[in-house]
Amino acid sequence: MTPEYAVERFDVAHTDALVLLWQECGLTKHWNDPHKDIERKLKDPVGGLFVVRDQESLVASVMLGYDGHRGSVYYLAVHPSYQGRGLGRLLMAYCDTFLLALECPKINLYVRDSNLKVLDFYDHLDYVVDPSVVLGRRLIADH
Fold first, then answer.
1. How sure is the predictor about 2, in pLDDT bands with cuts at 50, 70 and 90?
2. Within its chain, how far is the Cα of 43 from the centroid?
C-alpha cells in the first residue's frame, strides 16, 4: 500500500535537511547560498516554502511565489529514492490550488534546459515552453 503524503509549510528547524535535499537533487549552485534563499523566502508574505515528509525525513519541497501577476515555482525537489511516487504531481497540484485561491492567472516555473528528465515531467503536466527569454542580474552576491 502506498503511504499518504501531505504538503505542509516548511519549519525553519528543518533548514539543514532541506538544503541537503536540494543538494541531493542537484538544485544548488555555487552562486546561490541555499540557506540565504530560505531566509529570504521566509520573509516573503505571499507564497511560501512547502515540504513533504516521510515520518521525520524531508522527501520533497517546493518554493512558491506570487507577484500579483504570475505565480512562480522554484526548488521543486523530490528525493531520488522517492521519485516516481507522485510527489512532484502532489506538490504541483498544491501550487495550483494555492495560486488559484489568490486568483493567479498563470504559473511560471524555471528548469535548467539541460535537465531533460524534469522537462519531460512538466510536459506530462501540460506545461509548455513559453516564447520568452529569462534575463537576470545579481543584486546581491551570495558568495
1. low
2. 17
